[in-house]
Design a protein that fits this description.
By secondary structure, the protein is α+β, with helices and mostly antiparallel strands. Helices cover 20% and strands 27% of the residues.
């Protein structure tokens, strides 16, 4: 939050990786810079000048053993993956996140410190459902089970079938688990498009796949540049998925004509 692209290139030179990162002898570094400042109360992003460093991710090339680092891991917040054996350790005060798996450190990410988060973060995120009492914000990784864009609803059914099967299996192991359907309309969209399509997907799962309606939350998540559906499976004691709109409703073109959500996801 305090250095710029110019500062980085004075120190390290121009990037030597195709993605704009840096390759060193023992690690790779990806450096993320700020784009435009906060806009119209949209969540995410930073109220800092363009090209300010907002994140640095370092990935070791050689194995780094978790136990070899002189860090009190138990004092850090633990974030569990819902799909893999990965465990992240977060020092929110300093803004450092360690991604680990199989006893090895896979990456170290330097984020905004707790103090800088309060100073520079844009509007706070909203969640797809009320937060359960006692839930911890970062206890479980928020990663979609699946996502897709504008495809025929017949194709979407196949994705929803897999989602239903996994959700039902997960509920057997963890009865309080829930499925979430988040739909983002695009920059050009019909009125109430995202909510209509989210409800259509939920109705299909309930009527055709016999999924308990109380175990599924379907929401209009706002607008992004392109239409998108995200499917999540989360433990009942975790924070619900964050909604991450990137386009203000004021900048959306409302389309004329009839919307047929259960025929095509558009």
């Amino acid at each position: 939050m305090h250095s710029t692209r110019s500062d980085v290139e004075k120190l390290l030179g121009e990037p030597n990786e195709e993605d704009g990162g840096y390759l060193f002898e023992n690690e790779r570094a990806a450096i993320i810079y700020a784009g435009q400042r906060c806009q119209e109360d949209l969540p995410g992003g930073w109220n800092v000048p363009q090209n300010t460093v907002v994140e640095i991710q370092v990935s070791p090339i050689k194995d780094v053993v978790l136990a070899d680092l002189a860090i009190n891991w138990q004092a850090l917040e633990q974030i569990y993956s819902v799909r893999t054996a990965r465990i992240d350790y977060l020092d929110a005060k300093q803004g450092i996140r360690y991604a680990t798996e199989g006893g090895l450190v896979r990456s170290i990410t330097y984020l905004a410190s707790e103090e800088d988060e309060k100073k520079f973060a844009c509007a706070p995120y909203k969640y797809a459902a009320p937060v359960p009492e006692g839930a911890k914000l970062n206890r479980f990784e928020q990663y979609p089970f699946d996502s897709y864009g504008r495809i025929p609803f017949e194709d979407a059914k196949g994705r929803l079938d897999l989602f239903a099967s996994q959700l039902q299996d997960t509920i057997k192991a963890r009865p309080n688990s829930r499925g979430f359907i988040l739909v983002y309309a695009g920059r050009a969209a019909h009125k109430a498009e995202a909510k209509t399509i989210a409800d259509c997907a939920k109705n299909y799962l309930v009527k055709e796949r016999r999924v308990d309606p109380d175990s599924i939350v379907a929401v209009d998540a706002g607008y992004q540049n392109e239409f998108k559906v995200e499917l999540y499976i989360m433990p009942g004691d975790a924070y619900p998925p964050r909604m991450k709109p990137t386009v203000s409703p004021k900048r959306v073109q409302i389309l004329e004509g009839e919307l047929e959500p259960c025929k095509y996801t558009q």
